[in-house]
Amino acid sequence: CSYLPTAAVPGVPGAGLFESPRQFRGHAVTEEQVGQITPGVSSRDDVEALLGSPSASGTFDPSEWYYISGITHQRPARNLGVIEQNVLVVRFDPGGTVQEVRRLGMEDGREIQMVSRVTPSPGTERSVLQQLFGNIGRVGVPGSQQPQRGPGAASPGSGQ
Amino acid sequence: QPRQRATPAAAAPRGDVIRTIEVTGNQRIEADTIRSYMLIQPGDAFDADRLDRSLRTLFATGLFRDVKLTRQGDRILVEVEENPVVNRVAFEGNSKVSDDVLRPEVALRPRAVFTPEQAQADRRRILDLYARRGRFGASVEPKIIDLGQNRVDVVFEIQEGPAALVSRISFVGNTAFSDRRLRDVIATREQAWYRLLSSSDIYDPERLAFDRELLRRFYLRSGYADVQVTGATAELSPDRDSFFVTYTIDEGPRYRVGSVDIVSSLPGIDTDALRRSLPISVGDWYDGEAVERATEQMVDLAGTLVPFVDIRPRITRNREQGTVDVIFEAVEGPRTFVERIDISGNTRTADHVIRREFRLAEGDPLNAAQVRRSRQRLRDLGYFSNVDIQASQGSRPDRALLTATVAERATGELSLGGGFSTDAGFLLDFGIRERNFLGTGVDTRLQALLAQRRSQVDFSVTNPSFLDRNLAAGFDAFYLQRDLQDIASYSERRYGVVLRAGYEFNERLRQSWAYSLVQRNVFDVQADASLPIQEQEGETLLSQVGTTLAYDVRDSRIEPRQGYLVRVGSDLAGLGGDVQYIRMRGDVAGYIPLERIFGEPDYVLALQAGAGWLVPWGNDPERIVDRFFLGGDNLRGFALAGAGPRDLQGNDPLGGRLIWTQTTELRFPLPLPSELGLLGRAFVDVGSLSETPYTGPTIVDDAAPRVGMGVGISWRTPVGLINIDIAQAVVKQSYDETQLIRFGFGTRF
Amino acid sequence: CGGSLWDGQQESLSPTLRQQTADSSPESLFAAGMEALNAEQYPRAVQLFDIVEREHPYSAFATNAKLMSAYGEYMRNRYTEAIGALDRFIQLHPAHRDIAYAYYLRALSLYEQINDTQRDQTTTEQAMAALQDVANRFPNTPYARDARLKMDLGRDHLAGHEMVVGRFYQNRRLYVAAIGRFRRVVEEYQTTNHVPEALHRLTEIYLALGLTEEARRTASVLGHNFPGSEWYQDSYALLVDGPNAGTERPGWWQRNIGSIF
């Protein structure tokens, strides 16, 4: 058998040296799966059986199901680059049968700037010093046995 | 055995109401505590069954040695005998195992309740502990000393007895491999004088089971697909103080690979792309582990093409031709999505520092390969002693919950060290480093070194994911002063700042940029130094921007055993500053595992090669401090800057603009127990340095390669790391400075 | 009994304390302990109470000593030891008159160990469970009222953690993950003050995905329930004026520098 470290040389097919592999995000739905949903006929269970449970439903309106998916890849020196982003909207009428199926692509989305303000939470903001040295007492020294059992650990063991 | 005479009350006509419950015999425990445990309360109807059950609950509390419930008219009389309180737990006679190893094993603790069963249970736990350390002859006797007032001292008297060693290991049924070869494969070792400190020669039943697995995997790797390690028996030797261990193996036929194929029922998977990456070829000996590795690799690969893919190897053996057909089936994996990723245990590290290492996010398809890589990336951070990611069922059938539990490790290091190295002489170094500053993932480090011929202060801050982006940013401020009087008859001082930035193209390719602004000063040039050195005296400012591309496919950055690393880079000096040059540099390091030949994973062949070329431009050429030097670490067998262009008049090395080096090094474990942390190496270093800018009668500049060969040992002692290299300069120029022994010893405390 | 071996514990080395207290009665020991507590010499108080408990386990003071030593450990911020002592007290004296205080002190010891929203939240969940236990077992005691208040703070804390993770994913445009987190805040932590922000973030995400009517519906719920909140003004601005007219638009430079320090 060959000694050369072949196992370490995965011939990545097609992906160039600089290319970052694409990554599937969210709940992708193929064309022919969508084709099988017929508005007016398929019910909620048909859709769930066919596509699986939705990524999200309307916040306060359970009659809309969203299947959100995308493809991202890593970009040098920046955060994730989104190549593809699509949303499948399935709208049900009150009776629970599919009323309408819509697809939204990346072009429908708007470039939104996140508001930088944050609601303060009452968490105990640890002082810098406490964070720096707060860990010394608590973190077990690697290789020490499991933590002392029972309360007797701290008090003096012997007494006449 | 405690006297459990529980006498349930005589059967009485039902319907009477109990007026009171009286408790007698209790000393430490209040009566109403006992009543609160009873299932019958005053005012209830009398009921024998509930009486019996409350008797059992009282016993279950473990507080009482004996309980008697008797009924008198409409009163229930509860007589209890309390279990004593443990005042002190002590161990006597334990020399091989210390008290604080035994104490956590024992459940009896000061002020806890003493029960005879607990004492017996603790005795068995201590015996198990000794059995695990191979001392089967040990005996333990718990002695109870009554102190009055129902308080006792518990003393475990231990006779440890001799450690049972393994004096002979033999194999039955092994035709393909010799006994000696198989002895290297298993973990248990035969008793030998040099294994005094090691525990590998102590008889341990659990390790026998582990040995069977090692043997099975070893045979599987060598083509014996039907191997059965049928037995691992140990009998006591005639003189009863050691064991003979025998392994019986049924090897079965040796198989070659008949045919390899990839079948895909999924669109979007082009099987020939996968086939190209197959490490198994027809005609090879069949290797079970290689199939597992190939499957894992192909799942990673296919995962980038189609979201839900699972690859299952189907192996069909045909005994007659002795061949195995391997068919990899790509099938649709289960369509599960990650519902939530919960991180726990991070008492110091911030959530986003961990979450940004995850290759998948909530809502994404669950992909085992990415979970594996996420766990590996978290381990590579070095902030945690343990990382574990578990998947569990989510709120809906096609949803999974990922729970990552991490155990924080002290990432701050305060080190004060002393030592000696051939280049710098006796040295004292001080370092304070916090790899995970305030849990934000920022690595800050302050390093100071004071040595006879060198003093250095370094302060560096690096944020591996600046703004949570794929961008590592950092800066260093440093001061370095080196006394090279007896090597090159001048001293050198540099201080400056470096701004760094780096990013990943993908898991293997990374690029980093660095801008350095450094003030350099060559001073104390000796009067008799060579002319070229004398005109180098003075201060110069370097303003240089440089970049490096690194393609890293090694299996680990700290102790690589497989894979390779390629780095190419270039530096441009001259955007301001006093020197203008372009410097190209590149190096390659390959690691070939020799485990298949020697059976030990620590045998590794490391091949390294590097080259550098410096080209001045403009009218301010580079200074001596910028040039390459050969000898010392990059060419063992030669002194620091001992090889390369030299001015014979002052016997000073001048450095060169063109350098290449090559190293072949075999790393091997020494036959000593692995706990000692001893690793040996044998190496051949080759290198050449040329193109010095000076000419003259006494200047020699010969590009002929120099060769140094030798052996070395690195020893991780509890006190510090010791490195010794003994190398002989085999091919050299007459004027080169050689150095037989290089010695480095650094200790941290 | 056998020779008294030095068992390696540092405290037992100090003979002075042991000589002083070897013979004195539990009452005086207990009183000395209480006095040390009032003088805030907690280590000494804990030691005195432990001696009472060990030397005179049968006196009535032993039970109170266990409780007081736990209080001493709590005041010394040694919460794990305090919880250990309280567990022992609860197991041995479930019907004690101060049992409510023991449960309450145990819940407080857990509550004090809550990390901030960026870090591990298991201690918060344990504290919430212990506080809930106090509120259930002793409903009409002052401890229950304080426990309910602390539970609100704990819930606000957990919601804060969900928001931190939600913003992390929204920053990286992983909208499915972000929706999941913000929806959880809206559904399970309605009483916390993070709900307005969660609703606004959902509006931002739905607009980024192109689901304009869903964004409008969410913003209207936000407006209806929290009319005066700044978050509603942000959502309103997003829906009416278009993407970049929000009140607080950080410049590129300020946003990056802001996140370093």
Q: Which radius of gyration of chain C do the C-alpha atoms yield?
A: 27 Å
Oligomer: heterotrimer
Residues in helix, % of chain C: over 70%
Number of helices of chain B: 13
The gross shape of chain B turns out to be globular
Radius of gyration of chain B: 36 Å
Strand order of the largest sheet of chain B: 16-17-18-19-20-21-22-23-24-25-26-29-30-32-33-34
Structural class of chain C: mainly alpha
Uncertain stretches of chain B:
1-13
Overall pLDDT metric of chain C: 82
Low-confidence stretches of chain C: 1-14, 243-249
The overall strand count of chain C is 0
Mean pLDDT of chain B: 84
Helix content of chain B: 10-25%
Please describe what this structure looks like.
- The complex is a heterotrimer of chains A (160), B (749) and C (261).
- Chain A has helices spanning 31-35, 44-51, 128-138; strands spanning 23-26, 56-57, 64-73, 81-92, 98-104.
- Chain A has 160 residues and is α+β, with helices and mostly antiparallel strands.
- In chain A, strand 2 (56-57) and strand 3 (64-73) form a beta hairpin.
- In chain A, 27% of the residues are buried.
- Chain B is globular, with a radius of gyration of 36 Å.
- In chain B, strand 24 and strand 25 form a beta hairpin.
- With 261 residues, chain C is mostly helical.
- Chain C has helices at residues 15-22, 26-38, 42-55, 60-75, 79-92, 99-112, 122-137, 142-171, 175-188, 195-209, 212-225, 230-241, 252-260.
- In chain C, helix 2 (26-38) packs antiparallel against helix 3 (42-55) and helix 10 (195-209) runs parallel beside helix 12.
- Chain C is elongated, with a radius of gyration of 27 Å.
- Chains in contact: A-B, A-C, B-C.
- The B-C interface holds B 27-30, 32-33, 35-37, 63, 85, 87-88, 90, 92, 99-100, 110-111, 145, 147, 149-151, 153, 155, 339-340, 343-352, 355-356, 361-364, 439, 466-468 and C 1-2, 5, 7-8, 53-54, 57-58, 62-63, 88, 92-96, 115, 118-122, 161, 164-165, 168-169, 171-172, 174, 176-177, 179-181, 256, 259-260.
